[in-house]
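Quarterly update from the structural biology core.
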Amino acid sequence: MIDRQLMLAVLAATLSGGCSHPTVPEWEERAHEGFEQYQRSYFAGDRTADRDFRKAADALATTGKPELRARGELIGCALATAALDFERCDGWQSLQADADAVDRAYGALLSGSFSGLDAKALPPQYGALAKATDAVARNDALKRIEDPLSRLIGAGAVFRAGDLSPGGVALAVDTASEQGWRRPLLAWLGAQARLAETSGDTAALARIRKRIDVVAPPAH
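Predicted structure, tokenized:
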């Protein structure tokens, strides 16, 4: 399920039992539930994923607030970054002018733009990653992110920046595998296979392709 810290940061949902509001607006509940369902269907590679996203985004649209429409696209971009599906971030790119400074900082992280990134504007799990000044430090910071989803999103951001090491790719593969997230796992195994092919490691490439065959959805 979507990490609660991530949801609080990019959805601004006050859904915990200790929230200061006496009631939670219905649109927030529907949006939170909708994006959790979208994560499940998108990561599973289900055909219902696009429909699930539209339903979740529609819950935000009922507020009539452009910044929340942008935030919905930001959530979609975050999950897509975990699966190396960077074209899925086009919607966020087209709407980011409507977003607030916190969301734009998170969007910059997702795009791999680490230069000048304000760590204080990001969810705390990304603090060390935002402060890292080189590729080695970024790969080291990824290892210290405890939440699997946040770690995978961070790995996607570092990959997009061109700084992810083979060990970082392996970490992302292991993370997606342990959670049973099919779409991200296939994407990261593909990245790992390209590394093995480039290095001429035929034995590793054969092992990776076998894993891809195992996880790939059955043909209908």
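Residues 26-44 form the longest helix (19 residues).
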